[in-house]
Amino acid sequence: MDDLKVSDSIDEILTLLRRSNKYIDETQPWILGKDESKKARLGTVLYNLLESIRIAAVLLGPFLPETSEKILKQLNTDKRDWESLLQFNGMVAGQKVGTPEILFARIDAAKKIEEINKLNEAKAPKDPVKTEEIKSETNTKSETEAKEENDDRYITIDDFAKLDMRVAEIIKVEKHPNADKLLVFQLKIGEETRQVVSGIAKWYKPEDLAGKKVVMVYNLKPVTLRGVESNGMILSAEKGKKLSVVSTLEDIPSGATIS
């Protein structure tokens, strides 16, 4: 903040929230809640999450004051000053949280379009003939655009350009500990190693794939599948009951870009 790096400051707060979200995947409180013997561990996990959220809410105060206030109200805490951030003990064990509410409501696209159309009609010329012409033109354009947007058979070159596909060498394959249909891969992409989870255990055994080179989507958003993080996707072709991973020429080095 001293250097006016406002966006960097906000990103540091979001890093805390992203890590808290990952903590949920790692600890799986929904499973802890089913085991009476792990009740104490569940309490610790929930406390850590609530305290992390409290700290993030206080830090967000200068940027999103109304949102910060809503979060702290839901937490039902009066520890809202900067001094309270010096220690990880702002929440009180056994304390009841407030009433939850959605912080950022999803926009209803159809309703929003209707509001915009009504606003445009109010600003349109009052001449009946011209008004009808404008309505007709607007409707025609909307219908055409709607057809184009709903036609998912095609993508543009810009859509394709967003994909980052690389050659990856499979250096290790294991069965997923919690899912029979999933395999967990360790892939070498150039000098980097990534973990990818793929639902191809029905067609391949781990020993069939080690050492092979495959094509992967490199810039796919990371997800957690049955408790295991996946950072990418292995491409495969499927028809009927047959499936085969998309492989490459063995003399192409891992990390090579597919174009």
Can you walk through the features of this model?
The chain is an alpha+beta fold and 259 residues long. Among the domains are: 6-86, Isoleucyl-tRNA Synthetase, Domain 1; 161-258, Nucleic acid-binding proteins (OB fold (Dihydrolipoamide Acetyltransferase, E2P)), CATH 2.40.50. The chain is 41% helix and 19% strand. The protein is built from 8 helices and 10 strands. The chain has helices at residues 6-27, 29-32, 39-60, 65-75, 109-123, 128-150, 157-161, 206-209; strands at residues 165-175, 183-189, 192-198, 213-217, 223-225, 228-230, 233-234, 236-239, 242-245, 257-258. Strands 1, 2, 3, 4, 7 and 10 form a 6-stranded antiparallel beta sheet that branches. The chain has a two-stranded antiparallel ribbon with strand order 5-6. It has a two-stranded antiparallel ribbon with strand order 8-9. Helix 1 runs antiparallel to helix 3. The two termini are 42 Å apart. The model has no long low-confidence stretch (mean pLDDT 86).
